[in-house]
């Protein structure tokens, strides 16, 4: 088993890089804070006998040699970037759980056949550069390196620029990295394990998710002189569309989810009726056919709403991550490890996207979930117990050792 | 009568300072573009025999001497700042119409008893620094100079800083400027004159207007893992409030107006349910008691909507400009001048706020309206005909000469 105290200490340490007053973390991808945590990760893993390198997307690999140099590595990992008002566990636990595994092997002098690697994937959150899972997406062949590098943040700064600024561009081309298996430990970010009082979620797959950018165009007009019936108010129309986006999820309850996270009205002056409103839409469902039906429903509702409100609407798809089913042998390793360790468990489908989604396209993959407080995530109040994160890391350790035997 | 061609030429010239591709103007208060148009105004008026000075709020006064040095000036004017996507007439016509009056007197060698002044009021639009009519508000005693100077734009830059940067802080304290009368020429910014095919609006007053800032607080949550029934979505609640704000105007039709011009959702990430949404509200009515009833209706609806959606709401009043009735003698001067010139006309209440609103608190005031295309304003497509703007300036000339006789 892993050293739970050392793991918790690492979680507290990393929470300081970009730590917020409310106890959360604001560590957007490739910012100065992210540079700091990357340096800490390199130092920590080097002290555990690893060599640390980058690929061309800034993905950070800490490698512990195996006894058989002909075998590809078994990878663990997740991401160290966070949301603007993010928590201390989302992503971070998957990297630090991997470090905890390395530490156990190091402390006990255990060697493995395969080399072991802990990976910190660049820009998983999608909060600074959209879409999410951008660098693991390049690794898994979902995006080209050119596309990913050209993504710009709200200030217009590109991911490529920020990779170079940090000195994170490695010689190895992203994706040219053979691996025997990939295991990602993560907090559930949802309420199921806590509600059922189970310690471990054996993740069988990840639901499908689609993103869109909606643009609603009306006509700007003076707030004091334009009679209500003469207006083409893009924001009033958008408000009605928001209600309809919500209705899409309700029409596909209980699994259908819809979210609008960003909205902007132009020209953004208190005494001007908005001429244009832009908002994002996030639709999710574990079933691809149902997700497809949700999309069609959504598009129809937007058109109907635009027509009823005498405005123009354009819906642009910006991301499509289909539902994923993980590797049966990797899932079995997680399940058997959990049984051996005597933890309560259940199978679970992930509601959130993870680097494992894209890595699973090229490497046999599975995930381990542990409960988090009230299922709250993407929120500074995100919380998990020392017992649960230790249990998850123990499962990770055993699953990796099992894969090493195969 | 004024030289209509020279007036039109001035309108075309000033439209170039901050001119946009779509034929509108983006000349926010005290930006570089505003500095340029101020320099042009000073040069133009100096060439017409005026001296140009600033008061402590950067209000720009071009003064043509009268024959009797004991008399206070008769003022004309409006503003040269615009909305972000503003037009070429809103405000500008009132200043350039004043310049046209000066030009006629200059060209014909006519002298007046009173000195005449054309004033360019600072930051009328409220688009860069809220609230609108900020410097004429200090002139009229509605705001203190400290309050006005401390107003900051979206980037946090204060009005005081920008006044100093431009060298616009004059020795005369704002408000210590006696005047015999004030006449402001403006496009109607609404559809009435055009629809009734009348050339001149004799403005008897301005409707009441109130501004609020609404903050809606829910709980941020993960878009992929948080079941719909467990969400406290601040944006969904805000969308329903937008519908209710619209209903406030509908409940007080046809005169009641309500507008939401600015909206922001936080933390503004595509995969995070918004924890907070802020939006502005602009309520207007020509009758103060009805406006008061609209406010009470609005506050109640916000509370009800917050409760129904399990979110918190705070409504903060940010501006209150009560309904105004202009000076009967000044109104009569405008009406008689219009009759003499043989233009069609009607009495009208302004839907938009104007510098005249606050100036009227300390100086006998009236306004002259001319039609604008389809009533469109606060829009780059804003338009008016050479004939109408010339007619308005002629009325301005006659009204000023009438006031000079009294
Ligand atoms: N784990 C996680 O929060 N990833 C972000 C991608 C998503 O929106 O699901
Ligand atoms: N004239 C004008 O558009 N003024 C801005 C103040 C208002 O919102 O009415």
Description:
2 copies of one chain form a homodimer. Chain A contains 12 helices and 16 strands. By secondary structure, chain A is α+β, with helices and mostly antiparallel strands. In chain A, helix 1 (4-15) packs across helix 3 (92-108) and helix 3 crosses helix 12. In chain A, the strands form 3 sheets. In chain A, strands 1, 2, 3, 4, 5, 6, 14, 15 and 16 form a 9-stranded mixed sheet that branches. In chain A, strands 7, 9, 10, 12 and 13 form a 5-stranded antiparallel sheet that branches. Chain A has a two-stranded antiparallel ribbon with strand order 8-11. The two termini of chain A are 20 Å apart. In chain A, strand 3, helix 3 (92-108) and strand 4 form a beta-alpha-beta unit. At the A-B interface, strand 8, helix 8, strand 9, strand 10 and strand 11 of A face strand 8, helix 8, strand 9, strand 10 and strand 11 of B. One N-(aminocarbonyl)-beta-alanine sits between chains A (90, 124-126, 132, 189, 352-354) and B (222-224, 271).
**Ligands bound to this protein structure:** N-(aminocarbonyl)-beta-alanine
What oligomeric state is this? homodimer
Count of β-strands of chain A: 16
SSE order of chain A in H/E notation?
HHEEEHEHHHEHEEEHEEEEHEEHEHEH
Q: Which chains make the largest contact?
A: A-B, 72 and 72 residues
Helix content of chain A: 25-40%
Q: Describe the sheet with the most strands of chain A.
A: 9 strands, mixed
> Can you count the helices of chain A?
12
Family (chains A, B): Belongs to the peptidase M20 family.
Protein name (chains A, B): M20 family metallo-hydrolase
InterPro entries (chains A, B): Amidase_Cbmase, Bact_exopeptidase_dim_dom, Peptidase_M20, Peptidase_M20_dimer
Keywords (chains A, B): Hydrolase
